[in-house]
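Can't paste images in this forum, so I'm doing it all in text. The chain is below; anyone willing to post the predicted structure tokens underneath?
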Amino acid sequence: MPRRLVLGCGSIGHAVVVALADDRGELTVIDPDADRVETLRNEGVPAQRGDPTDPTVVAIEEAVEAVFVAGDDPTANLAAAETARAVHPEAALVIYSGEHPDADTRSAMDALADRTVDRGRTVADHVLGPVEGEAGPRLHELHRVLRSIDGRLGVFTHDNPDPDAIAAAVALRNLAEALGTEADACYFGDISHQENRALVNVFELDLVNLEPEEFDRADFDGIALVDHSRPGVNDQLPEDLSVDVVIDHHPPRAAVDARFIDLRSDVGATSTLVTGYYRSLGGEMDRTVATALLYGIRVDTRDFGREITPADFDAAAYLLDAADVDALRRIESPSVTGETLSVLARAIENRELRGSVLATSVGTTVDRDALAQAADTLLAMAGVRAVLVLGLLDETDTVIASARTRGTQLDIGEAVRVAYDQIGSAGGHTDMAGAQIPLGILGEVDDDSGSLETVIGDVLIDRFFEVLPADVLA
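Text version of the structure:
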């Protein structure tokens, strides 16, 4: 297994090492702060107290494939990097520049490292790209399309938007208005997850919640889709609606048609793409928008632990300078509703564990996001590497599925698609997925299935287990 060595663990480094701890390969973190080491150990990160500039401490017995210097102090980071280069000359060396390094320190880092990461410059280098490269024409075309809209632009998220969709919509709306185009950030459905509501409420984000019957194409002179790519698919817009802008990081499952299209599945969040556009305008970044985008990236990459790319890390590092970190803490620690606790209790009570896979049904719920929260919570149970939570969304006659994995080769998105796409709609990422199955279809699957609980348990849970490889069920 490859061994990764992290020297120092500051504000940026903490998120990275937690993500690395869940990834394949071996990890060692060395930090001089005893309290920080204890915190990391409590989070399951293999950390030890020591001086990252001491060659005898850095010279661990195992061969080291990569070294990440991740403290907040530039001078200390440079000293640790010099030690790492001397002790592990063959290892890839990445240095976080820390807080406001002087020119000489930064120059020394650049000369020493395979890559240096800071909070501003890398966004231009890796998100926007060279002005003469691909990004320049792309951004020019986006600006041209936004300016050409003679009237109001409707920026639409997918139904029941998550933080990435909310942040991308608000940021694109502000970008359009900065270019002289009036715009609204719109969505269908509900914002029911308490953290998503906290994001909207703490920053008083101006979002327009529409009912399908309220949508009138005449109200908008332009349409933009963020975090999804086709009208009528995961939103309540007409399928034949003409679209001006599409920005999404999910690979499309059919042709996408718009005047401006930016589909890049090689990043972990749509907020990463929009951060690049925003940066192109120059000037100070709006504090609210920066915080929302940072939160969108963190949530969609599961705190830099899922499908993270250098572009996501660089965008987050850039946003951190402008973001309201105190407000972000309030967003991440909202009150939990009684319905969420009730769903979690039923999920625990009804759980079925086969090997490292846990599946459960919670019956009827009014809060679809409580299913996702239950899946996230159950995934933390000892010995569990994959979770499926099912529930009937009240008054919709639709069964909602939420699935998660960690530390396994199982592609949960593919498993959910194989299990449920033929009787509903399903999809997602390798470690996070979901499905919607109309209740009426279940009667066609098994006419003798009996009660709702039996339908969900005996039919849908068994259907999920049947598609999983034998090694994860052993």
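The chain has three domains: 3-116, 126-332, 338-473. The two ends are 23 Å apart (CA to CA).
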